[in-house]
Amino acid sequence: MDLFIAIFTGTIIAATPLIFASLGELVVEKSGVLNLGLEGMMLMGAAFAFWAVISGLPMPVAIAAGALAGAATSLLFGVLALTFLTNQYAAGLALAIFGSGVSAFLGRGFGSTPIDALKRIHIPLLSDIPVVGPLFFRFDPMVYLAIAIFGLITWFLYRTKGGLILRTIGESPETSHAIGYPVTRIRYMAVLFGGLMAGLAGAYLSVAYTPLWVENMTAGKGWISLALVVFATWRPLRVLIGAWLFGGMTILQLQGQALGIAVPSELLSALPYLATIIVLVIISQNRQMLALHFPASLAKPFRAAS
Amino acid sequence: MIPRLELHNITKSYPGIVANEDISLSIQRGEVHAVLGENGAGKSTLMKIIYGAAQADSGEIYCDGKRIEAHNPAISRSLGIEMVYQHFALFESVSVVENIALAIKGVFDLDRLAAEIKTLSARYGMPIDPHRRVHDLSVGERQRVEIVRCLLQSPKLLILDEPTSVLTPQAVVKLFETLRQLASEGCSIVYISHKLDEVQELCDTATVLRNGRVTGVARPKETTSLELARMMVGSQLPEMHVSPSVPSEKPVLEVRGLSAPARDEYGTELTNISFDVHGGEIVGLAGVSGNGQAELIALLSGERTHSRSETILIGGRPSGHLGAGERRKLGMAFVPEERLGRGAVPPHCLWENALLTAHRTGLVRKGLVERGQARDFARRIIDRFKVKANGPQSSAQSLSGGNLQKFIVGRELTLEPKLLLVSQPTWGVDVGAAAFIRQTLVDLSRAGAAVLVVSEELDELFEICDRLLVISNGRVSPPLIRKQTNREEIGLLMTRVGHGEARRSEVALEN
C-alpha cells in the first residue's frame, strides 16, 4: 500500500509542471500561435522563483515572480512573432535557447544549497483519513492549482464566448478579423498566458519539485509538454491524462532503478518519453477528431489587411 | 429622400493596379442595386470599401446623409450595413449558432439565439438547424447561415457578393423571394454579380464597372442584355462556335459500377456510378457541390485509387488501380478545381509549374531539368492562350484567377490528351476568359478528345456539352442529351437523383 501511495503521489507531483506548461501552450496554440520556447520560459520562471526564495521573499511572491518571468519572456516571442511576423518556429526555438542561456547566467550566484520546499497542505481531518488522506489531501497547493486551472481552461474554451473567439481565431484569423475581432491583441493575450503558465511550471520545479537550482533543470520537460499538446490533439482532458501518464512512467522507472532492475538506467530514463509518445500516438489515430480540434492557422503569421 | 448610401469619387489603388477609380453611386431605401462587372472589374474591392474592410485612398461615403469618416466593419455594423461574402466568413469547426454568436453583440446565450435563428430563418423561407456544425453544411446552407446572421441584425443595407454562384436554380428562386421580401420591408440591397439574367430579374438599378471605373448606370429591367454586356465587357462578346460532335465508336473513358466509401465523415459515398465518355464529345457533370463530385474526380484523376481496376477503363484499359502519373501516361490530362494548390504550386513560377505535368514532353533529360526548354514551353502557353503574365518567371500566385486558369488549361491541352477531365473550368474567371476557355474545350473535343466537365454553372454546361449527367448524393443519373433536356429537368435531378433519407430531408429544405 505504501508503495502504491508513493507511486500515486509521485505521479501527480511529477505531472504538475507538465500540466501547467502544456495547458498554457494549448491555449497559445488554440489561438493559432506556436510557441516552441516553453523550455526557455520555464527555465526563466524557475530561475526567478528560486532567486526570490533565496532573497528571502515569501513563497507566494516567489511563485508569482516565476510566473511573471515566464510571461515577460513570452512577451519577447510575442513581439517577434506577432508584431514583426517572424517565423514562429524560429522565434520559438530562439526563445528556448535564450531562456536557457539567460537562466544559467542568472543562476551562477545561486549556489548549490537546497531551499525549503513549498509546504504541503494539511487539512485537519481530511488529510488524516487513512489512505485517502495521503492520496488526495497532502499535496502542496500548486498541485491543486494545476487541476483548478485545467477546469478553468476547459470551461473557458468550450463554455464562454471568449473561448469561442480564441478557438475561431485559431481556425481562421482572417475571418475573425473580418467580423471585427482584434486578432493580434487576443493572440498576445494567449501568448502571455502561455508564458505565465510556463513560468508557473518552472517555479514549481525549482521551489517545490526539486528545491534547488541546477542549470537546465527542466531537462526537456518543456519539449515533452509541447509534444503532449500535439499528441493530445489539442484537448485539455487528454493533456491532463498525458501529463499523468508521463508522470507515472517517470516515477515507475525511478522505482525500477531503485529496485535494481537489470536494464541500463539510461534506457529506463527514456521510458516515460517513449511510453507517452506511443500512447498518445495511439489515441490520436482518429483523424477526423484531429481535424476538428486542430487549430487550422497554427504557426501561420497573420497581418490585418488594409 | 436622403439616400441610404452614397459614394462620392471613391478611388483605391493597390500596388500595380487601380482597383477603383472615381466611383460614385447612390442607393435608396428598399432599392435593390446591382453592381455589375467582370471579375477583376473592381466590384469586390468596392464592396470592401463600403463595408469598411478596406479603406479608400480618396472619396467619401455617406450613410443616411451622414459622412462616415474613419471606416471599419464594426462601424458598418453599428450603422446597419451587413455583408454576405462570396467566400463565406464562417468557421467550419463550430456550430451554426456559435458562428452567429461570434458575429453579433449582446449576451452570450446560445439557447436563446438558436431559437431566434430558427424563427427568423423560417420566416424568410430558408430553414437552418442552428446546432449543426458548419463543416457538415452544403454551400447553399452555408449561404443561408450568412444571410440569417445578417438578418438577425435587422440590417438597413445588405451587401451580397455573387450569392448565386453556388446555388441550384430552385435555390436561386428561393433566395430572390427572400431578397424581395427584405427590400419590401425597407432594406436596401447591393447585389454584386456578373450574371445578367439575374440582375435583370431582381434589381431596380445597376451600376456597371469595368477596369475599376463606372461605365454605365442602367435600369436593368428596361435595358437589353446586350447593352449591359457591352457596358461590362467594353467590346463585342466573343461568339461560341460549337460544331456538331462526331463521337468515336468506342468510349475513351468508361466508368463501370463505381462505388467508393466516403473519404471522411464529411465526404459523400459514391454508389454504383456508370457512364461513358466518347472521343469527340463533351460530357458535363452537373450537381450542387458536395454531392460526390470531389470524390468522383479524385477517383477518375487517380489522386485516389480503387481496389477494383475494372471500374474505370481508360482507352479500354482497366485503370482503377493506377495512380495519377500512370493514367497520364495513358493520355489523360486533368484540370482540377483548386487552381492554387492542386493545379499549380502558388509560389513557384510558371515554367516550373508547366514542368509538373509536362515533364514527359522532353523537358527533363536524364533526371535533369532542361530549363531553357521548360521556359520556352511555358512561353508558348502564355502566347497561345493569351495569359497576362510577366513571362515564364512570374509566380503562379501572382496571376489573376482567370489568367492562371488559362495557363493551366493551356498546359494540359498542350499535352494533346486523349481524355481531359476538367473541374469547374471557369470558376471565378471573367466573361472573356471564360468564353475563351470554353471554346478551347470545344475545339479539343472536336479534334477527337474525350472531355468530361464537372461544373456547377448550368449555363456553361448547356453551352458546351453534348450530353449531361447529374450527380446527387453520390449517385449519377443516366445521361441526358443536351438538346432534349432543359434547366428545370436538370435542376430537379440535382436534388432528387439520390433517394437516401438524408437527401429527402434536404429536398424538403430546398422546397
UniProtKB/TrEMBL annotation, chain A:
Q: Which CDD domains match?
A: TM_PBP1_transp_TpRbsC_like (cd06580)
Membrane topology, record value = Multi-pass membrane protein
Record's Pfam families? BPD_transp_2 (PF02653)
Keyword Cell membrane listed? The answer is: yes
Keyword match Cell membrane: yes
Top-level taxonomy: Bacteria, Pseudomonadati, Pseudomonadota, Alphaproteobacteria, Hyphomicrobiales
Q: Which organism is it from?
A: Sinorhizobium medicae (strain WSM419) (Ensifer medicae)
- PANTHER family membership: ABC TRANSPORTER PERMEASE PROTEIN, SUGAR ABC TRANSPORTER INTEGRAL MEMBRANE PROTEIN-RELATED
Main site of residence?
membrane
Sorted alphabetically, the keyword list is: Cell membrane, Membrane, Plasmid, Transmembrane, Transmembrane helix
According to UniProt, the name of this protein is Inner-membrane translocator
